[in-house]
Each structure stands twice: as C-alpha cells, then as structure tokens.
Amino acid sequence: MVHNPLVVAALSAGLLAPLAAGMYSSNSPVLQLTGKNFNEKIIKSNHASIVEFYAPWCGHCKNLKPAYEKAAENLKGLAQVAAIDCDEDANKKTCGEYGIQGFPTLKTFKPGKNGKPVIMDYQGPRTAKGVVDAVLDLIPNHVERVNSKTVESFLQKKNETVKAILFTTKGVATPMYKSLAIDFFGSISFAQVRDKETEALAIFGVEKLPTLIVLPGGTAEGVVYDGPMKKDAMTKFLSQYAKPSDGKPAKEEKETPTSSSTSAPPPKPTFDSTIPDVPSMGAFAESCGKKICVLVITPPVAPSLAPFEKTNFYVNHIKLGFPFFQLPYATLSPQFKEALELTDTENVQMRALSAKKGWWVPYKGDANSHEDMENWMDALKLGDLHKKKLPELGSDVVTPPEPPKEEAPKEEAPKEEEPEKEAPKHEEL
Fold first, then answer.
1. pLDDT of residue 262
2. Per its UniProt entry, what is the enzyme's top EC class, as one word (predicted)?
3. Euclidean distance between CA atoms 141 and 178, whole angstroms
4. Quick one: average pLDDT of 386-397?
C-alpha cells in the first residue's frame, strides 16, 4: 500500500484530529446535538426524542452506531433520534446535568405538559427495532377521535380554523398521522373517523378508505386529498391551507382570581380503589391465563392507588374490558421488576400482559390523562402496540414480607437500586 506522505504527516501532527472527533458524520440521519442547542432541539420540542450520550473512543458506542443510524432512518419524520458527544468540552456540562456516568447512555424524552418532557432511561434492546418500537410509543397524540355522535360538535368547534379529517379502518392514529398533527399543531385541528362510523362517512360522502379531507374553515367546501398516503406528499398538500407550526403546545392559561376566590376551595373528591392486589403469579395466572390483564404498579411514596384520583377513577368507573390488578412497587421481586422494566419509583406504572401468548406491553402515557389511557386501551384491543416477550418469572411476583425480629433492628445505610426481525419501515396510514 502506498501512503501519501502529506496525510501521514498530518495524522502524526494531529492536524486531522477534528475530523475524527465526532462519531456521526454530517450526513448521518442521527441529529447532532451540542450543549448550545440541546434545550432548543430536545427539551422545547413537541416531538418524541431519544438521545444517545456517547464518547467517540467508546467501543460499545461504535457497536451501537449501525443500529442507531438505522433506527434514525426509520423514524425520520416521525420522531427524533439524536446524539451528543460527551467527550467534547463544550458538551460536558450538559452531559453532567443528566447524570451521565457511562457510555453509551440512552434517554427518551416524551413531551409533557407546560413544556417539561418526561425523561426516562432507555432500558430496551440496543437494536434498531428495539429503539424504533420504544420511540413510536412516545409520540404525542393530538388527533381527536370523532364518531357519528361527535362529528357535528367537532365541525362547529373553532369553525374558522383549518381541520383535517382522516377516514380509516384503524381505531388509533398511526405514528405518521400523529406526526402530522405535531407538525401543524395550533394551525390545523386533526381528527380521525373509523370505518364503523357509517353516519359520519355518509355526511362527507366517503366511499373508500383511507380518505383524507381538509376543511379550509368558515363556509369553504372540504377538499379531498387524492395523493399518496406518504408524509412528504401529505405535508405539501396540508401546507396549502396552513403553515407548519413549530410544534410547540400553547401554554395553559391560569385562572384569574375573583373576589369570591378568597373562600376555601371545595374539597377534592376521593375514590376508594376497588382494584384487587396480586398475591402471587399463580393468582394472576388463574384470573388472566387466557385473557389480557393490566397490572397497576404504585410507587413507594404511595403504595395505594387511592391518592391518584384521576387514574383510580378512570380504571374503576370506565368499562375497560380488561381485568385490573394493583401491586405496590416496593413489594415486587427484583426478578419481576427487571423483566417488566419497572424503573420508575415515583409514578404509577402500568403493564398489560398475556400469560397465554407470552407477551407484555408497557403504558407510556400520562397516568393522569384519561385520553392517553383510552388510546392505549384501544390500541391494546386492536393489537397495534409493540409487544415484548414475557420471560419466565417463576412462581413469585410479590416478595414475601420478612418475619418480625425480636432484636431491635440495626440501622443500615440504604442500598441503591440499579435501574435497570428488522426495524419496521415508515408506517402508512
């Protein structure tokens, strides 16, 4: 092999070092982050994101790169797959703020209320499919579900604004349609009507599915989209009626206090939980051996579901179609926590399981959002969620309590708990 003496000399002198500093090239589908643009690109974004905190010299980071770039390619236009080089001095402060101690560390960012995202450690498989499946579940849903009874109220609400209605066979919005609703958030109201809503279909004369209709607003007639059901083409079509927004949700307006507001606020309603506990996997299997069941895991700070009023009211008063069981996080066996990726110790967590078919599905919505839970239930019934393999958990789900000791217990320092096919193509409507 013939070596160019100029290149060899440059390498020896370290002149080409900046070219090797970053692990991802400028044409990589992975979004490049820095300490300066992290908040703007990730924290303030209304798109779901996954961020890799890495160092270029890290062998595991290099091994992850092909799968991570493949995931980014498949999630293009749907969510953000990003990376930040923690070896760069300018980025070390940002990496420190997120407690990065090893590489690569992956964290997911799901847009939340008031501009504060829900940040979680990614504990799934480090494959393209694993990353894609996890991030798809985090995409916010700004698509309103409309049926034959509610279509009129949807049309009358903010009549001057542009509306887009998708008539489809699907019961839940696809990632692509949800991403369109994010791109045009605040400028176009998105809705979805299922094929079984025959009266709503008749109002618009819809005969084939899927069909997308845009209502420009006011008295203007609706326009039927006749192009391919692809993100770029649909974006171009919708842009004729409204400009894509920055995807930022409007800030919630605070109520202005009135003269009568000096009186004490009315007491909040409370709801006693009627969700039974799970004493063992045997008891769970007996009730859920041939059907899907949902486990509600309560955090150590509130081992009973009763304080979580909205969640408790929803699961106790809405017809869900699934048996529910309640388990305190602190009583679960370490094996069970690891198998079902139960790493959140501050909030309610939910997991749907099928003991017969050997899979489980995590709930990644807001525990206080009825809409998130309802969408999750619909997707669960339709089989539209990404299922994970249910491993052998043994006979115990709950760790039996230790017998009382006669001697006075000695104080011990608390131990820290360790948190612990191919990628799908763009999903069409």
1. 40
2. isomerase
3. 6
4. 70
Residue 345's Cβ-count burial label (10 Å; 0-12, 13-18, 19+) is middle
Q: Do domains 10-136 and 281-389 have the same CATH topology?
A: yes
Minimal CA–CA distance to 341: which of 390, 281, 406?
A: 390
Token pair for 7: 């290149």
CATH 3.30.1460.10 fits 143-238, yes or no: no
Tell me the two tokens of residue 320. 């869900």
Return the pLDDT at 192.
96
Q: Is 358 within 8 Å of 390 (Cβ atoms)? A: yes
Residues in CB range of 355: below 8 A, 6 or more apart: 284, 285, 288, 289, 293, 390
By C-alpha distance, which of 181, 193, 172, 180 is closest to 375?
172
Could you give the C-alpha distances from 141 to 12, 214, 350, in angstroms and in order?
A: 53, 19, 19
Q: Thinking of the domain 281-389, which architecture would CATH place it in?
A: 3-Layer(aba) Sandwich (3.40)
- CATH 3.40.50.2300 applies to domain 10-136: no
Q: What is the structure's pLDDT at 5?
A: 43
Type of residue at 343:
T
Is the predicted pLDDT of residue 223 greater than 80, yes or no? Answer: yes
Tell whether the torsion through CA atoms of 384, 390, 371 and 45 is positive or negative.
negative
- Structural domain boundaries in the chain: 10-136, 143-238, 281-389
Q: Which amino acid, 9? A: A
Q: Which two tokens stand for residue 313?
A: 């009211």
Residue type, 135: V
Find all residues with CB under 8 Å of 110, minimum gap 6, and list them: 48, 117, 118, 120, 138, 140, 364
Q: What's the pLDDT score for residue 306?
A: 61
Place of tokens 């769970």: 284
Cα–Cα separations (whole angstroms), residue 35 to 41, 87, 257, 339 = 11, 12, 40, 35
Identify the CA nearest to 165 among candidates 186, 182, 144, 184.
144
